[in-house]
Amino acid sequence: MDGIRIPAEVAEAAGVPDDLDSGQLGPYRFPSPARRRIGARIYVTAGLLAALGALANLGTGLWVVAIGLLALAYLHYRTAWPLAVGQEQALDMAASLSPFAVGHASAALGFEGGRSRPVWNLVLYSAENPPLFRALVRLDAVSGRQLDEVYTEQLPQPD
Prior knowledge:
By secondary structure, the chain is an alpha+beta fold. Helices cover 35% and strands 21% of the residues. β2 and β3 (133-140) form a beta hairpin.
């Protein structure tokens, strides 16, 4: 699966931002989940305004809105993990855990659990051409600790 390819002229006409354009070259910095605190502050403000409206007898339904918005704010604060381990650092850590010399590598950030804790999933290929081995390393993106044993497999070789 190659992913979605959008011609450059279509992306430009649609106004696709550079950070969403897969054709952009160069380093990419994954935004920290701690940005969820911004949304949480907005929800707290809106929830308090709804509660004030309910207290001013603007409608009893505003209590439901206030409670819902404050619950959303709580969830956003609880899932706003700081991304302490960046992509480059995670790749370096994974390479040091690999049982072989690393050639190409890829990193993807995933989220686990009810609080959406960020986890780096790193796929490493051995340095031979073509690679003989592939490994999966999983690291906690907040603490940097290794989550699972390194999974390694031998790749089939062309005849």
